[in-house]
Known about the structure:
Blueprint: E1 3-4, E2 7-8, H1 14-26, H2 37-56, H3 63-76, H4 82-91, H5 93-112, H6 114-126, H7 130-135, H8 140-152
Antiparallel strand pairs: 1-2
Helix pairs in contact: 2-3, 6-8
Amino acid sequence: MQVRSGRRRRWGIPWLDTVFLASLHEANISYAHVTHLGHAIAIWAVCLIAIVGVLARPFKVPEWIWALGGATVIAAAQLLPIGGVLNAVSKGTDVYLFLTGMMLLAEMARREGVFDWVASRAVRASGGSRTKLDRVPRSGVRMTFDAGRVLSQ
Length: 153
């Protein structure tokens, strides 16, 4: 095993070592628990399947089932210790609340027609030109502030 920056590389693949060690450190999981390359590959495979499931929604299964299923498989297969899994879940509370708030705001904006209003404004700003319409997203920040100013009146 090679030594780099005072750390021993476990798998011999620099990017895998860096990413995997960082994720273990963030979840407060002992490096000694994941001793086999098979554990690391299994964890990455479960995460990849869960992410693809969330994004692609095969079989029309809701996103939350894919995400929860991935976490359950990792915990049930004891790929990571239960304490580490629960610790990682508890550290995400602020993220869960932020995403819940964003989803509520997006749904409220959809019901009130904000997205339709922004789209019609983008079409008007392009003057019917497809090329200009492709450039309109660059001015999306300005339109977002305009929308906020209009809604606050």
